[in-house]
Write a structure and sequence with these properties.
Chain lengths: 358, 344
Amino acid sequence: MSSIKFSVGPQHSGIGHFRMKITLQGDTIIEAEPDPGFVHRGAEKISETREYLQNVPMIERQCLADVSSVTLAYAMAIEELADVEVPPRAQFIRIIMCELSRIMSHLYWLSIMGIFLGHSTMFMWSFGNRDIFIDLAERITGSRVSYTYIIPGGVRYDLPDGIKDRTMETLDYFQGRLKEHDAIFLSNPIFKRRTKGVGVLNRADAIRMGVTGPTLRASGVRGDIRKDEPYSSYDKLDFEIPIFTEGDSYARALVRFKEMEISSSIIRKAFENLPEGDFKVKVRKKVPEGEAFSRVEAARGELACYIISDGSAKPYRLKMSTPSFRNLPGFSLLKDSMLGDMPTIYMSLDYWPPDADR
Amino acid sequence: MNAVNIPQIVNLQQLIMFIFGVLKSELFFKIIIFPGIFTILITVSELIWLERKYLAKMQLRVGPQYAGRIAGILQPVADFIKLLFKETIIPEKADKIFFQIVPIILVTVAATTLTVIPLSETDVISNLGVGLLFTFAILAMFPILALLAGWASNSKYPFIGGIRALFQQISYEVPLWFSALGVVILAGSLNFVDIVRAQETFWFILLLPLGALIFLVAMTAELERIPFDLPEAETEIVSGWIAEYSGMNYALIMLSLYIKLYFASAMFTALFLGGWLGPSILPPAFWFLTKTFIVALVLMTIRGVLPRVRLADLIKIGWERLLILSLVNIILAIVVKLVLLGVY
């Protein structure tokens, strides 16, 4: 039986900046070779030519759906180097921003998932919901998408007046909409049919491949940096993390869906427990010699940042380990699946090419 | 029939008289103006506008707004004119003759199906005795044309799309036929006018709800619309068999797809919703078109709320569910017919 070889991307509708070379036999994918690197910008090398603070807007562009987590990992590493204690209020504001980012990122994922399954209403509704959070972020930080809000030493501005009520209104509306989303999209029989049992990643394989984030938690592994290695006062808030054991695309979808609700409740709790005080401490331009490692739970999984400083105002070496790149081995799930399942599996991993390529 | 008698043409005067005769004839009016090409184009452009506006409302958007002042009602016309001026790109390795001929055949064939659909008792271009058979024969051409387009493009995605179109066809043609067969049993005729007349007491959707449902589902697959738009699944195989088409060719293909939508809605109206039948305050053609638009709205709603199914599931639904249900539908139709005839 002859096979067809073709490449999906980098100019494929839906899958942007990324290529997969697929060999198709009949309707079965017998080989899928991911080919990342189309949007590699050399962020790690560029960072060596800039000062610590100047790097923040540059590195947050690697994952525009989830900017807060990237900047938080970077800021935490520098704070460790400079030996600075971040004020409690700043830590809580950081939690609020990170969870807002997580909701926005998951909404982005939900909408692209809709497009990948041919469901344009899902796309429009999720993007519409994401917009109310962008408006909220604009109110807090002054920018809509890349806000450079979390900086070494705290956050750039204090929360504006009346933001608590505004956030609560947004969350009330959003949680109501989430129920509709659940009824219309996730409980849709065709959605279940297309995602259940598709791209099953069992527990052992998930650990062996080193996948992170919702992909890992959908395979029954309890891996979440917010719980394992609490940072930025996450240990002061009570929340649970959703775990599913099926390991298929539907479980991954459910993890993300549940996380949106849990993130909403975390934001509520963070606002209730918001301490008074400073929102920023001064971090000197030149940090002492040494090296530091930090990791946070970004929307897509574990994001680690490693900095070596030689005592100057610029990092000697910055290394970032991003969740999308770590989820790249998950593309081996495509093997032996049908061509029609390719978009589902691709999207259930929530792969973000600029995040992986940096 | 309204056929024009072809006279013995001897000189120029007679030729001119003949042409005038053709222009004045009823058949010419029917083909060109009503219910022919002009009406089809108007209806189809309004269907496109309706779909865009309706989907926009479902998706919390605004939709077309400016072209034509009133709610962007001329947007399809504007799109068509835009595509008219775009460069037609033909892939280097494509089979140029077949590649260009397919869009033209598609539109022609799609419009041909509408010749036998009666907008009212008299507003039908060709009152064919085997109208239903004729439409199915024409419908069977579409996947072959899709495959031809995919093959002529000489490209991988269009080829997969064409093959998928064939798969879809064999899964859905049989249930589609059988569900329409129930109507034929009740009406006792393959002629659309007779079928509509037979519904004067009961619309067939009341007698054969199962058949109507199967027909709608199978027709959605035939139209290659969501949730059965596998031959054009954009995230899997770009645009399937349409992928290589651009400019005017693309416009023609889109036109043919929407003519098919109009035709499918019109066929459902004629078979199950009593065609032109309605209160005689308004002309029969009005009732027919209103019902057609309502059926089209149902198809659009389906597009708005469902994702795409998988190829394996589609074939499974076709062979395992719809085929058996359509056989059950035929038995039901026979029972209903016997009851109506007063046997029991």
